[in-house]
Amino acid sequence: MRAEWPFRLRLGLWPILTCLLFAACLTTGLAIVATTHQTRMQFAEWQRLNQEKNQLNTEWGQLLLEESTWSSPVRIERIAAERLDMRIPDVHDVEVIQP
Length: 99
What we know:
Blueprint: H1 5-70, H2 73-83
């Protein structure tokens, strides 16, 4: 009987070891699926943010162009002359004050 006892013990461990390995494989497979899904979702979000960045850069360039148009010296001088009746002073009208 003593010679059979370690052999039975080893046979009793195989089903437990097999179940543990199966559970480990199942857990690893589910982790891979979850990680792949998360990676795809983050990549889609990254692409959306890149597209939004490109649109914002285009809009920024258009706003800079519009700002340069609205603040051009020729336009400001024309509006000052038309709306406010302003003019560039003559040389005789300018006084230099020394500190």
